[in-house]
Prior knowledge:
It is a single chain. This protein starts with a strand and ends in a 5-residue tail after the last strand. It is of the alpha+beta class. The chain has three helices and seven strands; from the N terminus they run E-H-E-E-H-E-E-H-E-E.
Amino acid sequence: MSTNFYIKHDASITGFNGREHIGKRSSGWAFTFQGRNHKTRYAWERRLNAMGAGECIVDEYGRELTCDEFIQAVNYTLNPRADGSNPRLKDGDIILSTGERDRSRNWVDGGCSFSIYDFS
């Protein structure tokens, strides 16, 4: 099971009607961020902390989350297994996508994966 997260914009306040894809949480995997505009986990956290009036974080089911709740959900995906092993990604790992070994399209930062591709 997976859940996508978005920044929802209220057009009457922001002038933009729609959603900005933050990324996806999938069971057993590190969080995957949309990496087109924000290239690091820190950059995404700065963007979320700087949300203005008319913007909020929502999951694909329409539930609103605070910035702290969202960051906690991301951090949850980074926890090691009960046996002490940690299958999570490490900074500098290459993510294979359609057979590509290309860090300009898929990369790891802060233990989370990033991709410039559209995904949901």
